Every structure is written in structure tokens, then in C-alpha cells.
Amino acid sequence: MTEQRHTALKELQHLDLRILEAQQRISDFDPRFVEAEESALVLESEAEKTRTRLKEMKLEERRLVASVDEKRAREKRLDERLGSVRNLREEAAVSAELEMVKRALQVDEQEAYTLIDQIRKTEERLGEVDETLAQERDVVEPKMAELIAERADAQKGLASFESERERFVGSMDASELRLYDGIRRGGRSIAVADLTQDGACGHCFVLVPLQVRNEVLHGDVLIRCEGCGVILAAPDPEAVAAAAAEEAARVEVAKVAAEAAATDEAYDANADDTAAPEETNDEDTGDE
Ligand SMILES: [Zn+2]
Q1: Exposed, middle or buried, 216 (CB in 10 Å: 0-12/13-18/19+)?
Q2: Which domain holds residue 93?
Q3: 273: left (phi over 0), alpha (psi -120 to 50) or beta
């Protein structure tokens, strides 16, 4: 009866470990998304900045063009006035003003040429960035879609583990569950551990006193490890059987090895021509 209780706790822990694993898998996607998108994001930001700069340059170009137009109109008016001056003083004044307008016009025109050249280069650059970005998106988009699908799978897996847990704890003893959850609340993932064959806690390997060990194996009460605080459980019969089989196999291998070593030793002793066992002598006779 109580053994079943421990089995339930272990099963719950097994489930919780799978939930943790699934949560970890899901959060592992975050850096993968960032990494997949990174180069495209860098290009996008560059394209954005270039586009803004281009817009500013075109505004400036428009302002310059208007200024050039206005100065050309003034130049034309002054040229006309120069043809109808009434005296030298007036002519000198109009000429001086015309000269000034022409110089300003030259500066504006030079600035406009430089700006137009810059605009052309920036447009070329933007075209290149946009093209690279489009290529990058062709690579990134399927990669992202793949990651999204993989993450959705992982989330589905997590949801199914979580609903399985919900069903499972519904059938568990409430106080036991509280103890288990309490141990895990501190961020620990292990709350139940089997006693080892040597009678130690399977989590921290602190030796459990014999009396306590018997109580654990008997399984009447929930006993916590004095070393690490996990709930101690009797190992599953299958695990015990598997460990016993493993131990038997180990003993068998050791026995065979010991026998082989003994035979070798006897053989060596014989080769050294010291007092050899009769048995070995017989063997040697047989070999000849
Ligand atoms: Zn322990």
C-alpha cells in the first residue's frame, strides 16, 4: 500500500523532470531565434537609417533647388535693370548686387551638385542593402518557420505533460503532494530518491542509519534524508533485480578473470620449472 505511495511520488518526479526538460527546450529557442534573425535585423536597421538619411537629403535638395531658382530670377531681374539704369551710380549699385547674387548662386549650385552626387551614391547603397536583405530574408524566413514549428511542438509536449501531471496529482494524497511540492519549491528538481544498495541516500549519498533504512524499506511513513532533505524511497523491485543481475554478472566476470589469472600463474610456475601442480603437468603432457 505505502510502497505504491512512493511509486506515485517517483512517477510524479519523473513527470516533473520531463516538464523541466521541456521548459528548458522551449527557452533554448530564444537565443536560436535571435541568432537566426540577427544578420537580417542588422541589415534592416542599416536600410532604415539609409532611407531616413536619403529623405533628409532630398528635402535639402528641394530647398537648394528653390533657392537656386529664386537667385536665378533675381539675377534675371538685375540683368534687366542694368539695361535701364539712369546713371553711373545706379549702374555700380546694380552691378554690385548682381555680382553678389551670382556668387551666392554659384555656391548654391556647387552645393546642389555635391548633394545630388551624394543622393545618387546613397540610393545605390540602399539598393545594395535592400537586395542583400531580400536574399537574407529568403534564408531566414524558412529557418524561422522551422524554429517556430519546432517550438510549437515543444510547447505541445509541455502542455501534454502538464495536463498529465494535473490528472496524476488528482489521485495523490494531498499532504504527501504538499511535502513534495514544498521540497521542490526552493528550485530543487529532485524531491524523492531511492535508497542505494549500500543504504545511502540516492541523491546526496549520505549513509542512512540502519533503523531509518528499515523504516524506509517498510514504507509506513515518509522519511526525509538528513543530509539533503529529499523523501527517501525503497528502490523499485525491478531496479533491485536489475542491480542484482548486474552485480551477479560483475561477480561472474571477476570469477572468470580470477580463474584465468590462476591458470596463468600455474602455467608460469610450471614454465619457471618450480614445483608445479600435478594438474598442470598433465595438461602439458596432453599438449605434446
Ligand atoms: Zn540525501
Answers
A1: buried
A2: 2-170
A3: left
User: pLDDT tens-digit profile of 83-102?
Assistant: 999 999 999 999 999 999 99
Same domain, 205 and 241: no
Whether 225 contacts 232, CB under 8 Å: yes
Do both 103 and 197 map to the same domain?
Answer: no
Instruction: Enter the C-alpha cell of residue 251.
Output: 561477480
Output the domain CATH number for residue 52.
1.10.287.1490
- Kindly report the backbone phi and psi dihedral angles of residue 232, in degrees, each rounded to the nearest multiple of 5, phi listed first: -90, 135
Distance between CA atoms of residues 47 and 132, nearest Å: 10
Q: Residue 75 and residue 55: Cα distance in Å, rounded?
A: 30
The pLDDT of 180-207, averaged and rounded, is 93
Which pLDDT value is given to residue 154?
95
Rg from Cα positions in the chain: 45
Q: Distance from the CA of 217 to the center of ligand 1, in angstroms?
A: 16
Residues 95 and 14 both lie in one domain: yes
Mean pLDDT for 116-142 is 96
- Which residues are 200's β-sheet partners? 207
Task: Output the pLDDT for position 1.
Answer: 42
Which residues hold their Cβ within 5 A of ligand 1, which is an ion? Answer: 201, 203-204, 225, 227-228
**Cα 180 to ligand 1 centre (Å):** 14
Residue 255 has pLDDT above 60, yes or no: yes
Q: 242 falls in which pLDDT band (50, 70, 90)?
A: confident
Cα 229 to ligand 1 centre (Å): 6
In degrees, to the nearest 5, what angle opens at C-alpha 232 toward C-alphas 201 and 189? 85
